[in-house]
Amino acid sequence: MTLRDQERSLEVKVYQTAGGAQVFQIPLQEFPILWGNVYLVLFDSAEGVPYRVLIDTGSGIGDSNDHLIHGLASVSTLTGTPISLSDLTHVFITHGHIDHFGGLTFVRPQTQARLGVHELDLRNLTNYEERLTLVAWRLEEFLREGGLDVDQRARVIELYKITKSMFRSVGVDFTYEACGMRVGPFEILHVPGHCAGHVVIRLHDVLFSGDHILAHTSPHQSPEHLTMFTGLEHYLQSLDTLEAWSGGIRLTFGGHEDPITDLKARIQQIRSLHQQRLGKVLGFLEQPHTVLEVSKELFGEVHGYNVLLALEEAGAHIEYLYQRGLLEIQNLAELERTNGNAPLHYRRLADIGCQPPGG
Q: At which of 230, 255, 272 does a domain end?
């Protein structure tokens, strides 16, 4: 990346809500191959209450913290008023994934801002070490059932842990449900699926969607077998809930990529993609296959951390179909013989569908 490209990638963009709030989109590099956005919202309510709200914090890894500080400096220049972490009134976390809250170890000591997260992601922040250990344990089981050998499992788990080991637990000041899903002018909706405690946040006619809705990418899915309140079932239900709740939204600001100008159309595109993917999985499972084999059918050969992402995405779709009685585990005898120490081979069952009496 040239210096000019770097400067362009760090450009802060400014938006305004119908109610007069200023929204600053601050880009930062969260991992070597992943860029994201955090948002600074400046708004003085009709009652004269100032809100200086940071939505998400980045990963805290690599240049992420430096990019956050650079973004605040850019906001100071754009507004003509100095603003720093110490001026924040609130920090809202949209969900408990490291690229959205990892920067808290850097941010928290520098501000008296009140930190909020949804109840179902609270322990991700306050009991992080426990969470990391438990998920790694469940992931080992998922990978074994998915068809990975011992060495493959060890490599994937090492990749899972390598960046996440840099975070340490932090205290939280409030949770969203305890506040009635509202903080001043900010309305909050729980949308589990991509993450158990994922929320979207509405201010006037704009929406902060975290990773629940992105402009170009279908947000990553993982099976609920790994974490309760994730899974494709919850995600698709949350799309329905959000569509009904989000009337009048003009702009949707994602945790990655560009703002979305037609939220309903984007929701429908994501629904359609998952229906296509489910159909492809069903077709492939006319013959028995493991999660690993399904992931390769869906995404081809992938490398590095993308191996885990592909496995989880495939697992989420298999789990969704299995829950609906459309799949069976074909190798039950092998599982009994090995005391469960064998990959699961899934196979398609006939789709019963609706068969009314006399039909």
A: 272
The Cα–Cα gap between 317 and 346 comes to 12
Q: Buried b / exposed e across 25-36, counting CB within 10 Å, b at 16+?
A: bbbbbbbeeebb
Q: Give mean pLDDT, residues 108-126.
A: 97
Region for 231 from its dihedrals, namely left if φ exceeds 0, alpha if ψ lies in -120 to 50, beta otherwise: left
What whole-number distance in Å separates Cα of residue 75 and Cα of residue 79?
A: 6
For residues 62 and 82, give the distance between their C-alpha atoms in angstroms, rounded to a whole number.
25
Determine the number of helices (DSSP H) and then strands (DSSP E) in the chain: 12, 14
CATH number assigned to the domain comprising residue 191 = 3.60.15.10
Residue 351 confidence (pLDDT)? 78
* HSE, side-chain direction, 13 A CA sphere, residue 201: 31
Among candidate residues 160, 166, 173, 206, the one with its CA nearest the CA of residue 187: 206
Quote the radius of gyration of the chain (alpha carbons, Å): 22
> Which tokens is 315 given?
């697992």
Domain boundary among 217, 250, 272: 272
Please report, for residues 15, 192, 201, 355, the alpha-carbon distance to residue 198 in angstroms, rounded to integers and kept in the order given.
24, 5, 10, 37
- 353 pLDDT more than 80: no
The verdict on residue 87 lying in a domain is yes
Of 98, 97, 291, 54, which Cα lies nearest the Cα of 193? 97
Residue 179 lies in a domain: yes
> Rounded to an integer, what distance in angstroms lies between the CA atom of residue 76 and that of residue 95?
27
Mean pLDDT across the chain, nearest whole number?
A: 94
Residues 6+ away with beta carbon under 8 Å from 137: none
| Amino acid identity at 158 | E
pTM over 0.90: yes
Structure-token pair, residue 172: 């939280």
Domain that residue 286 falls in: 275-347
